[in-house]
Write a structure and sequence with these properties.
The chain is mainly alpha-helical and about 150 residues long. It folds into two domains: about 50 residues, no CATH class; about 80 residues, no CATH class. The chain contains seven helices and no strands. α2 runs parallel beside α7 and α5 packs across α6. InterPro entries: RVT-Znf. It comes from Gossypium anomalum. This is Reverse transcriptase zinc-binding domain-containing protein.
Length: about 150
């Protein structure tokens, strides 16, 4: 059985223009995304993001922790809020403390149960205010951990 995908068959050609070699790389893909994003707010976030990524990739921590930090920073963690938004969960309530919805901020920083863990690890809530975004909190603690 043969399935014809196009009416007029053509030779495949390389269409990636991000690299002179024509090969797609993570670096060229990221650069391509940055050039397509002319929004000023997005540009500012990219500068802050670059600082975060530079700190993240240059401190001496296991890759598993590094990748988890990246996932947290980009809200790629399956919190109950995220699962509810994707219609995978019926509830957003935090199962650890049952005091509120399990958002990323709550799961990582604000849940009373997780705060006890941070204090036990001598990480504490130093410098955290209700005005800090989770990204600001992560950047602050990452910078402190890298000794900068």
């Amino acid at each position: 059985m043969e399935i014809l995908l196009v009416k007029h068959p053509q030779e495949d050609i390389c269409v990636w223009s991000g690299e002179l070699t024509g090969e797609s790389t993570v670096r060229s893909s990221y650069g391509n995304l940055l050039t397509k994003n002319s929004n000023q707010e997005m540009a500012n976030n990219n500068i802050i993001g670059r600082e975060f990524y530079n700190n993240l990739w240059h401190i001496d921590i296991p890759n598993k922790i590094r990748i988890t930090n990246w996932r947290i920073y980009n809200n790629y963690i399956p919190t109950f809020r995220n699962l509810y938004n994707k219609r995978i969960s019926n509830s957003v309530m935090c199962l650890r403390c049952k005091e509120g919805p399990e958002t990323l901020e709550h799961a990582i920083r604000d849940c009373p149960t997780i705060q006890e863990v941070w204090l036990e690890l001598n990480f504490g809530k130093q410098g955290t205010t209700s005005n800090d975004t989770l990204q600001e909190w992560i950047r602050e603690h990452l910078t402190r951990s890298s000794g900068q």
